[in-house]
Amino acid sequence: MEHDVVVVGGGAAGLSAALVLARARRKVVVVDAGEPRNAPARHLHGFLSRDGMAPGGLLDVGRDEVTRYGGVVAPDRVAGVDRDGGHGFVVRLEDGPDLVTRAVLVATGLRDELPDLPGVRERWGVDVLHCPYCHGHEVRDTPIAVVGGENRPFTVHQAALVRQWSDDVVFFPHRITLDDAERERFAARGVEVVDGDVARIVVRDDRVRGVELADGRVVPRSAVFVGPRFTPADGLLTALGCETGDNGWVVTDPTGRTSVPGVWAAGNVVDSPAQLISAAGAASKAAIALNHHLLELDVEDAVAARRRAAGALPAR
What are the residue boundaries of the FAD/NAD(P)-binding domain, all occurrences included (predicted)? Predict the structure, then answer.
């Protein structure tokens, strides 16, 4: 069976795209490995009408909506995508049968490469955080730490930004060297700077309690923001030969179209700052553009079939 579209990734972006395509009466399959980036978080925020919902709950609702319109959600992992020699693709699954499809939409997201500090991974998504728009309101007016790391621009900006949610913010540059202008900005902003290497995040009684430095000092804190390094899960796209930009990320046009005909991408796999709701919106836009791409192929096939039929008729 040939499908119209295989969507790789069953998060908010992938399911949003599949919903649009299924409602457009396209034969669509979502292949979902079941590893959502926001799984550690207890609640999602900033998604209109779903604020405060458990992330898994949003996906449950999304899967139900897609299947209600005839879409298929397959729990599996994509091992690779190959061109089939014509206009389509063969999507190879690790456990299931190959899927033949006319187009592919990749919504595999990204990986958060966390600072290598004890306590970070254990409390990730609970009280060790990275996005103040997602979690800042929940830790408002509490003692907050921001810990620097490899993602320098992100954490320096983050330390100033988090100050909107609390009057008590301490920035630990850790391995970042601040210049005089940056220190002046933090002083003016009311952000305390504590120098020295960070040894660990202090966790006790299933809660963050502070930040411990290498010299043994402990600064009491109840929430910690860190700056992960964002790595796109774009192996399928690069293997297909999709063009990448100077930053190493796959390039798309405003609709999510990649440089490979028939391949689209949406969400965090091509847009690291995308919030949940903007990833879903980008995927909806990509699905509409992808449907128009399929429409053009439909019309071309219909015209070719009409011409063949006309050529087969006896001359009058």
Answer: 3-280
| pLDDT tens digits, one per residue of 127-159 | 999 999 999 999 999 999 999 988 899 999 999
- Hey, what are 81's tokens? 């995508």
- Hey, where are the domains in the chain? 2-112+230-311, 115-227
By C-alpha distance, which of 80, 50, 51 is closest to 62?
50
Cα–Cα nearest to 216, from 231, 230, 199, 228? 199
Beta carbons of 77 and 36 less than 8 angstroms apart: no
Cβ neighbors of 8 (< 8 A, separation 6 or more) are 14, 31, 78, 81, 91, 104, 105, 106, 107, 108, 236
Q: Would the pTM count as exceeding 0.90?
A: yes
* Length of the chain as a residue count: 316
Our measurement of the distance from residue 266's CA atom to the centroid of its chain's CA atoms, rounded to an integer in Å, reads 8
Dihedrals phi, psi of 91, to nearest 5 degrees? -100, 115
For 280, the 3-state DSSP assignment is helix
Is the domain spanning 115-227 CATH 3.40.50.2000? The answer is: no
Per DSSP, what are the bridge partners of residue 3?
101
Q: Which class in CATH covers the domain with range 2-112+230-311?
A: alpha beta
With beta carbons less than 8 A apart as the criterion, state whether 89 and 82 touch: yes
